Amino acid sequence: MSRLIDCVVLKQQAEGLDTPPYPNELGQRIYDNVSKEGWKQWMERAITIINENGLSTADEKSVELLEQHMLGF
């Protein structure tokens, strides 16, 4: 049975993620508060941010900037 959470992105109850997306405290926070649909919306936004800013997920500063955007999302 799927897990329901109160999604902070959708502002309603929705199906939660199957596993945390990151192996850290932020990943657990996302797992606890963001639904599958909310995470999908973030991923679409993240792609736009990466492309518009020429970010690289291999660069630590780029990852930090992306995480800042994630927290604001």
Structure in words:
- There is one protein chain.
- This protein has 73 residues and is mainly alpha-helical.
- Helix content is 55%, strand content 11%.
- The N and C termini lie far apart (28 Å).
> Helices and strands, in N-to-C order?
EEHHH
Uncertain spans: none
Instruction: List the quaternary state of the chains.
Output: single chain
Spatial separation of the terminal alpha carbons: 28 Å
Structural class: mainly alpha
* Biggest sheet architecture: 2 strands, antiparallel
CA-based shape: globular
Approximately how much helix is present in the residues? 40-55%
Total helix count? 3
DSSP strand (E) fraction? Answer: 5-15%
Mean pLDDT: 93
Task: List the strand order in the largest sheet.
Answer: 1-2
Question: Based on DSSP secondary structure assignment, what is the total number of beta strands?
Answer: 2
Radius of gyration: 13 Å
